[in-house]
Amino acid sequence: MASSVALAVSSAMRTCWDDECDAEHTQLSAGELRSFHEQGGFDLPVASVAETVTAGQSYAKCADHRLVGPEVLASCSSSLLAEALGAPLLSTGRGAYCYGPKSPVSGRTVHLV
Predict the structure, then answer these.
(1) Would you say residue 21 lies in a domain?
(2) 112 Cβ partners below 8 Å, 6+ apart?
(3) Domains in the chain: how many in total?
């Protein structure tokens, strides 16, 4: 299960993280994610208005500590979803900064995959 915000952010993520790279990277992960979703067994719940506002408030707390970006917003949304479901919160090593000590998510255990 993934939050819709996390899937949206992941779909648009670039494949190269070198800030000085001037190559044109046109390959995005959207196709791979869509294929994964179409295999079944994957739920993409839509957040309610209240859940969206709460995720935005969590993001504002992150921004107060200069922890910003679409990945951080996705982590706030995903954290709330995991908490509501009582499910483990999974992330990648690359995304671990989203759950830093100044994040409102920091009290939760994040399992890195």
Answers:
(1) no
(2) 90, 91, 92, 93, 96
(3) 1
